[in-house]
Amino acid sequence: MNKQARELDKAIAILKAAGYRVVKPRTKTIVAPRLNAVGKPYGANYDSNYKMRHKPTSIKRLYAPYGQGMQFVPHFTIEEQQQKRKGVS
């Protein structure tokens, strides 16, 4: 407890003894800034209670207009890619 806090407590005790109703002033608590995944503090526009209005778009919905017959670029495994580079079919 620092000197000012002790003096304040003494003054409050004197006033209470005289019959006055005394409320201690609130001290502002300093909160350390919260850090994001990178270790930097969140920006001023960050809201931890934010909820999206709609659920995010799914990949199924994005592919829907193309129909069943549309072919997309295939995803090969690493072994298949290496075989293609060597010329082995």
Jot down its keywords.
single chain, 3 helices, 33% helix, 89 residues, mainly alpha
Summarize the structure.
With 89 residues, the chain is an all-alpha fold. The chain contains 3 helices and no strands.
- The H/E string reads HHH
Mass-distribution shape: elongated
Summed up, the helix count is 3
- Helical content (DSSP H or I, runs of 4+): 25-40%
The low-confidence parts are none
**Class by alpha and beta content:** mainly alpha
Describe the biggest sheet?
none
How many β strands by DSSP? 0
Mean pLDDT across all amino acids = 80
Description:
With 89 residues, this protein is mainly alpha-helical. 33% of the residues lie in helices and 0% in strands. The chain is built from 3 helices and no strands. It has helices spanning 3-17, 59-63, 78-86. The longest helix has 15 residues, at 3-17. It is elongated. The termini are far apart. The relative contact order is 0.05.
Give the topology, please:
Elements: H1 3-17, H2 59-63, H3 78-86
